[in-house]
Amino acid sequence: TLFRSVVSSYSLRPPQVATQVLQFPPGAISSLGTTVSFQGVARKLVIFGTPAGLVYSIDLRAFLFGGQKVPGKPDAAPYTFVPTSSSSVISHRNSVVQSKFVVVSPTNLESSNHVVVAGLDMMYCRVSAGKAWDLLNDDFNHHLLMTICGVLLLATIAARWVASHRNLKLQWA
Description:
The protein is of the alpha+beta class. It contains 1 helix and 6 strands. Strands 1-2-3 form a 3-stranded antiparallel beta sheet, with no helix packed on it. The radius of gyration is 27 Å and the shape is elongated.
């Protein structure tokens, strides 16, 4: 036989729970949420609201246990803080002062989520963990696509008609 041993999920050792304390450079966190995807394929983001009104979206992989290593320096000490950048701020010019909660809902597209952050103000935005890989660009040429599909449909009908007439001629010959 190909497999000589049987493995059961009951016989595996239980998962180990590990904790890690990281510093969040922007300061205190007033609200927190995570993204979910429509079918569970896309990467997850953690959404942070700060009392100052900024809303951050940070990839969940930045919180992996064991400490994050400095990119390009494998021998360096691990990070003790959550790496943030100006591109991780999703509130841009808007601010949600004293945010109380974050509500996240998946869209019908796998790569994006609806995020609502509420406090003294309310903010809505659409976030993607990576690029929106299942969304067409705004400048996509829909007319050209429809024209090509129409031409291919007409070519298929014409080829089918020619093939049936050729078979009819071969049967009469």
